[in-house]
Amino acid sequence: MFALDINLTAEQRLFREVTRVLDHERYMALAGLAQLGEIRIDENCPTAYTNFKDIVFGRKLIERITDAQLRFAIIHELYHMAYCHMAQFKWMWDKHPDTANRAWDEGINGRIVKENKIDQFAQIHPDWLNDPRFEDMHEVEIWKILFKEQEEKEGGDGKGGNGEGEGEGNGSFDEHDVEAYDELSKEEQEEHQREVEEALRQGLLAAKKSGHPSNLDLEELIEITIPWEDIVQEWMTTTCAGGEDGTFRIPNRQYLPMDIIRPSRIQDKLNDLIIAIDMSGSVGKKERTEFLSITRNVIETLSITNIHILYWDTEVRSHETYGETAIPLSELLNTTKPKGGGGTDVTCVANYVKDKRIEAEGIIVLTDGYIWGNDWGTWDAPVLWAILNNKGAQPTVGKKVNVTIN
After folding, report:
1. What's the pLDDT band for 238 if we cut at 50, 70, 90?
2. What SS3 class is residue 205?
3. 8 Å CB contact between 279 and 312
4. Which of 111, 212, 279, 343 could form a disulfide with 25 if both were Cys (CB 3.0 to 4.6 A apart)?
5. pLDDT higher for 402 or 280?
6. Mean pLDDT of 291-314
7. Which of 173, 201, 222 is the last residue of a domain?
8. pLDDT tier at 249, thresholds 50, 70, 90
9. Same domain, 145 and 291
């Protein structure tokens, strides 16, 4: 602690360091998250905790750590929110709370340590969790290792642990207020997750506009956590014809396996939609699988009379039509036959649509973005580009969304 800090209260130190964190180019994108709830001090809190909206610090914790360690703790709590640990990994907590707490904290701490390795803007306390075994590991990978160790320790049943005993006693300086999150209805939990995603998106945009480099980890997080069908729905309703509504009468099938009831989308029926799938030589089996997965989500999300599937490379190699006037949409994945394997010239799709006079209300192009001559074509309908694992690709027309697969 510096002498200049002698007259600062714990509250003053906390909010000074919050300001420093959110002013730092590496963490500027977190500013929106900090505004979703309160950041405050609680006399009865022994360490720190978040209910994934509010962030609470104990006075004693602040008084015994340095400014750089306090910045680490602030980033740590904001990362719990950014990575939606409660929404994404509640199953870990239900199975073994203490192990979930450790897995989440190990994942976060490893990221923060790595990010601050050079400038040491944020520094981890020597007693906080930071097992070198878990460097660059995802929380799920960490969980598997820790849970196996816990099973062996507890005699093979993997049970035990109720969230008590968290905090610095096990190397973690914070707790997770899961009970408060559990009190929210499913609709409130879903709304909270959407608020987090939007806050991150706006934070990244603000950082970019201010000329600061992007936080690539947070960018990828947004790409992973934003449901593809929501992106398509937004594009359709803001760019193409039709309005939207929702109904619980027909639950969204994607979320039923997770015991989440979300309304299905009801879109004023679109007459024709084109999905143009890149089948060039650079697109492998994994990429084709992802493209067909996206196609399935579009079918399940939107109400469309007909869908035209165009497989292309330097030419349109196959044109399949599904819907009310052709093969039923439900049979698309069972009957479709991808064709291609040459170069990548997307202008062939634009030209084909014009030549065949397909009057589509929207065109979705699924591609890896390695376009020959960087010629993105001239289109007579709104175009949405889903570009796989190629952030450098910059279409000159339409809307782009990055899709990331490992």
Report:
1. low
2. helix
3. yes
4. 212
5. 280
6. 86
7. 222
8. very low
9. no
The residue type found at 335 is T
Arithmetic mean of pLDDT, 354-370: 92
Task: Using DSSP, state whether 245 is helix, strand or coil.
Answer: strand
Distance in angstroms (rounded) separating the CA atoms of residues 29 and 305: 41
What contacts 33, CB < 8 A, 6 or more positions away?
78, 81, 82, 196, 199, 200, 203
Alpha-carbon distance values, 129 to 73, 331, 372 (Å): 12, 51, 48
Residue type, 85: H
Q: Residue 291: name the closest of 333, 329, 347 by CA.
A: 333
Domain that holds residue 329: 227-403
- pLDDT above 70 (res 402): yes
Asked if 291 contacts 259 with a C-beta cutoff of 8 angstroms, the reply is: no
The C-alpha atoms of residue 176 and residue 164 are separated, in whole angstroms, by 10
**Rg of the chain, C-alpha, whole Å:** 25
CA–CA distance, 49 with 307 (Å, rounded to integer) = 49
Q: Give the type of residue at 146.
A: L
State the total domains in the chain.
2
pTM of the entire structure? Answer: 0.55
Computed over every residue of the chain, the mean pLDDT equals: 80
Q: Give the single-character DSSP code of 53.
A: S
Q: CA–CA separation, 285 vs 156, rounded Å?
A: 39
Same domain for 176 and 243? no
